[in-house]
Amino acid sequence: MSQKPNKVLKQSGVIPYRVRDGKVEILLITTRKGQSWVIPKGGVCKGMSPYDSAAKEAWEEAGVVGQVNNEKIGAYEYRKRGNIYRVNLFLLPVETVLEDWPEAMQRERMWLDIKQAATLVKETSLKRIFKISQDQGLI
Predict the structure, then answer these.
(1) Residues contacting 97, CB < 8 A, separation 6+
(2) pLDDT at residue 34 greater than cutoff 90
(3) 63 contact partners, CB below 8 Å, separation of at least 6
(4) What number is the average pLDDT over the span 37-56?
(5) The pTM is what?
(6) Which of 15, 41, 44, 83 is the most exposed place for a label (fewest CB within 10 A)?
(7) For 54-64, what is each residue's pLDDT tens digit?
């Protein structure tokens, strides 16, 4: 009996960033269970573009608002509960940090420089996207 191949589920996410004292900082958030640090991401909402859906996730999960760049900067995959997820990433220059947002009671958030953020996220390909984005002057 052959094993059924896993379906790859599509998601979109953002790398929320700001410039403070001339240095770029990335915003990471915890998973709902607080077990690890991640970027805001989620399934692409029906009827929305991937980048608009990513902006919605940033507001819901991290309480940040800004104009998402509609150019995809990369993608990474991760596994969760037997599924494979492919996350298309967009840059979000943060304009507003909200004090209250939908998942405020479920998550923590932390601003970090790019190197620190890269040490906290688990996915190697996401670490690489952080570095490439910085090296290419995207953030």
Answers:
(1) 63, 64
(2) no
(3) 97, 98, 99, 100, 101, 103, 104, 109
(4) 95
(5) 0.89
(6) 83
(7) 999 999 999 99
Q: Which residue, among 12, 87, 10, 77, has the nearest Cα to 51 in the 3D structure? A: 12
Q: Are 49 and 88 in contact (CB under 8 A)?
A: no
Indicate the pLDDT class of residue 1, thresholds 50, 70 and 90: very low
- Tokens 């403070």 belong to which residue? 20
